[in-house]
Predict the 3D structure of the following.
Amino acid sequence: MTELLTAAQLAERLKVRPSTVREWAKTGRIPEIRISAKVRRFDPAEVDAVLRRQAVSRG
């Protein structure tokens, strides 16, 4: 199983702010896994795949 990341950990990998990661998840731009009402985690492989598809469709 892939290690799930926090918004801060994912933000560090993507070189954006954690608030950006949370906003992208809120708007559906990237997938999130809800652990509870306040806790969300991110699968980095899934996020990378989605962001790559979005870049290809825009480019």
